[in-house]
Design a protein that fits this description.
Order of helices and strands: HHEEEEEEEEEEE
Helix content: under 10%
Radius of gyration: 23 Å
């Protein structure tokens, strides 16, 4: 058991290490072929997250909405030709998870058999501390005006808690297909002919892997003012490389990784600023 955990941890580090090297690339290439910068800014961010999980076997889903907020820091080290090079770090509390689309063959919601005024509904919302470390390139004004930026790098996440929102009991045999070795449904299952997807194992499974990791990338606009600070609007996508459930041959799911889109606003104020009157 311990050997499998060690092997999984080593594989995780090997996957993520290249992205960390890329994140620190601006420092390694700053053998002063560009213009020196020594700017450090800190602040806070907040926004809205839309997430889902790529299950294999597939679970039909929509996007689950949630909030994200946290602290941001940015170190700008160089301007190389027209590109402003920086490293960005954040610590965020984010709500992510999945919202199931429980549909029939006509792509319509499945009616709850105990109450025909309701349709089957299931969502799982989880709270994570997410820590991205991003290499950033910007083009435009640094001190006063607009700047376009792109950033990419690794992100790790730490599971805190989870909450289920469902209008049925996931442990009730009426909602469990209990498919036997001959491919037949259990005798108490009520949705054999109405549901398109009968994958329900995830509904009653708690998160097994509490450490998440992946790659995040985003782009946006920044408005800077020498007295007011920096105001950023960004769209970001995160692709998880880890799974929330076990993925061995003995496990039900071969894959269960996050994917989420975030729209966020960030405010930064300067702590250290390069002394150069020519910087615009």
């Amino acid at each position: 058991m311990q050997s499998r955990i060690v092997i999984r941890a080593v594989k995780s580090v090997v996957k993520v290490l290249p992205f960390y090297l890329f994140a620190f690339l601006p420092f390694t290439v700053s053998a002063q072929v560009g213009e020196y910068r020594n700017d450090f800014a800190v602040g806070f961010n907040g926004g809205y997250s839309m997430s889902s999980i790529a299950f294999v076997p597939k679970v039909p889903q929509g996007q689950l909405g949630g909030m994200t907020a946290g602290f941001s820091a940015r170190y700008t080290c160089e301007k190389y030709f027209n590109s402003i090079c920086a490293v960005v770090g954040e610590v965020n509390l984010t709500q992510i998870g999945w919202q199931e689309d429980i549909l029939n063959a006509n792509d319509q919601p499945v009616v709850l058999h105990t109450d025909e005024t309701q349709t089957l509904n299931y969502a799982r919302k989880m709270s994570y501390v997410q820590v991205p470390l991003l290499a950033r390139l910007g083009w435009g004004r640094e001190r006063k005006g607009m700047q376009f930026f792109f950033q990419i790098g690794p992100q790790v996440g730490f599971f805190l808690s989870e909450k289920t929102d469902a209008n049925f009991d996931v442990h009730d045999p009426a909602f469990n297909p209990a498919i036997d070795e001959n491919g037949k449904f259990g005798p108490n299952y009520r949705y054999g002919s109405s549901r398109v997807s009968h994958v329900v194992a995830q509904d009653s499974m708690a998160v097994e892997n509490t450490f998440d990791y992946g790659i995040a990338a985003g782009a946006g606009l920044e408005f800077s003012h020498p007295k007011l600070g920096h105001f950023l609007l960004e769209g970001r996508y995160y692709y998880g490389l880890g799974n929330i459930y076990g993925s061995s041959k003995r496990d039900f799911f071969a894959r269960s990784n996050f994917g989420n889109i975030i729209i966020k606003f960030t405010y930064l104020f300067d702590i250290v600023r390069t002394k150069n009157s020519k910087i615009k």
